[in-house]
From TrEMBL:
Keywords: DNA-binding. The lineage of its organism: Bacteria, Bacillati, Actinomycetota, Actinomycetes, Geodermatophilales. InterPro entries: AfsR-DnrI-RedD_regulator, BTAD, TPR-like_helical_dom_sf. Pfam families: BTAD (PF03704). This is DNA-binding transcriptional activator of the SARP family. One of its GO terms (molecular function) is DNA binding. PANTHER family: TRANSCRIPTIONAL ACTIVATOR DOMAIN, TRANSCRIPTIONAL REGULATOR REDD-RELATED.
Length: 257
């Protein structure tokens, strides 16, 4: 190794599918060759952390990356570790990063699932987006960020992405319900419930959709299921706001008791 790493401003072969970095449900690199993925077990941990860091940081300087990933050693050692990781990445997935100008970034055309998830959420939450352009996220955008990683910055990003997805799903469900599309609204609400079973706002949306359709039984069943789960897991009851949605159903206050 001569300490130099490949610098590129674009993926080498323009007519191939764009390479993609996957961080949801585990690290992977999908190369420009269709069907070929660089297996996680052949990518050194330092290289995985480097690529993940760049996916979130945009175009960080080398010193910032070295300090974040190797903050427990001297600056010289951190820079040496960064150079080694870049060299190894160049052997495994040449051209994945643009290293020009003293900064690091995904090369033009390289995609990342975490950025695709953020783009989907931004589209859903933009009130100018036409309703017909709104969809549930693709199944490959459903997983948790880098399971098993415990770096502080990963924990923060994991929670941020989880909340981003949940808020977008609830926004999607509310917009679909308001537009008189209950089946799709229920699907969005259920997706939020599956992602976070103890999230009251997702269950509350689901109850509202059922009530708007006149499906009292489904509304009551949803409330009772959530109440039982919340009591079993946390020893808590649903909020008064949620209870008021259903307390008049099924005869007096029996539903909410």
């Amino acid at each position: 190794m001569d300490g130099r790493e490949r610098t590129t401003s674009a993926w080498p072969v323009a007519d191939r599918p764009a390479p993609r970095v996957g961080l949801l449900d585990g690290f992977r690199i999908e190369t420009a060759c269709p069907g070929r993925t660089v297996r996680r077990d052949v990518v050194p941990p330092a290289v995985q952390r480097l690529v993940a860091c760049v996916c979130f940081a945009g175009r960080p300087g080398r010193s910032a990356v070295a300090g974040q990933l190797w903050g427990d050693v001297s600056e010289d050692q951190a820079q040496a570790s960064l150079r080694s990781a870049l060299w190894r990445l160049g052997r495994l997935a040449p051209g994945l990063l643009d290293t020009a100008g003293g900064a690091l970034a995904l090369a033009p055309g390289v995609r990342a699932d975490v950025r695709e998830l953020a783009d989907w959420a931004a589209t859903v939450r933009d009130p100018r987006t036409p309703l017909d352009d709104l969809t549930l996220p693709r199944p490959d955008l459903d997983g948790d960020l880098l399971p098993g990683w415990h770096d502080d910055w990963v924990l923060i990003e994991r929670e941020r992405l989880r909340q981003l997805r949940l808020y977008a799903l609830e926004t999607l469900g509310a917009r679909l319900a308001a537009a008189g599309r209950p089946a799709e609204a229920v699907e969005a609400a259920l997706a939020a419930v599956r992602s976070e079973p103890l999230r009251e706002s997702a269950h509350r949306l689901l109850v509202r959709v059922h009530l708007a359709e006149g499906d009292v039984a489904a509304a009551v069943r949803t409330y009772r299921h959530f109440r039982t789960m919340l009591r079993d897991e946390l020893g808590l009851d649903p909020s008064d706001r949620f209870t008021r949605l259903v307390q008049h159903l099924g005869g007096g206050g029996r539903v909410a008791s």
